[in-house]
Amino acid sequence: RPETDGILVAYTSIYGHTADAAEQLAEELRTKDQQVVVMDLARCDMAEAVAQAFRFSKLVLATPTYNGDVFPFTKTFIEHLTERNYQNRTVALVEAGSWAPAAAKVMTKELEGMKDITLTQNKVTVLGSLSDASRAQIEALADELSK
Questions:
Q1: CA dihedral for 68, 74, 76, 77, sign (positive or negative)
Q2: Is residue 10 a contact partner of residue 53, using CB atoms and an 8 Å limit?
Q3: Which is it for the CA torsion 43, 122, 58, 146, positive or negative?
Q4: Which of 55, 92, 99, 138 could bond 120 through an S-S bridge, CB–CB 3.0 to 4.6 Å?
Q5: pLDDT digit string (tens) for the chain, length 147 residues
Q6: Distance between CA 50 and CA 61 in Å, rounded?
Q7: Are the beta carbons of 1 and 31 closer than 8 angstroms?
């Protein structure tokens, strides 16, 4: 069971656009009085990121599509969660890509094997850099995660 009602936003970013989306989502969640921790999976201690995922009731996975898959640090993070029987959480997805983002589809498939994982209705897709459309998706996701 989660220790804390809060949200871990775990992201990887290649050109900074996914990082921008993750930070904007965190900012939006904080305006709704949500406890949020943001971690860059490529630069943080992976064990600490896994511990935070188990601590909080909700998780946001944000990653660019990378060779038709997710960025390697995100893939490793999801594998760590799977190995440790991550369950009973709400998970939201943020994907990024320039022409054919597939990260949400890949992450959904990875999460299907986990017990009692609820995926949010809303997801965020960043095509290139943040746009009005992706900002609107971030707001909708923040609203859903705040309920």
A1: negative
A2: yes
A3: positive
A4: 92
A5: 899 999 999 999 999 999 999 999 999 999 999 999 999 999 999 999 999 999 999 999 999 999 999 999 999 999 999 999 999 999 999 999 988 899 999 999 999 989 999 999 999 999 999 999 999 999 999 999 999
A6: 12
A7: no
Joined tokens for residue 123? 């997801």
Cα(61)–Cα(9) distance, integer angstroms:
6
Structural tokens at position 30: 């904080």
Structure tokens of 126? 């960043």
HSE-CB at 44 with a 13 A cutoff on CA atoms is 20
CB atoms within 10 A of CB 45: 9
